[in-house]
């Protein structure tokens, strides 16, 4: 667990993951119906 935390749970990887999730949500067909 320690090596996973050190290697993957960094600010940069969390930001990249968040960007990927936000981009995927923005591509959903229903997204255009919401004013976020």
From TrEMBL:
<protein>
    <submittedName>
        <fullName>Tn3 family transposase</fullName>
    </submittedName>
</protein>
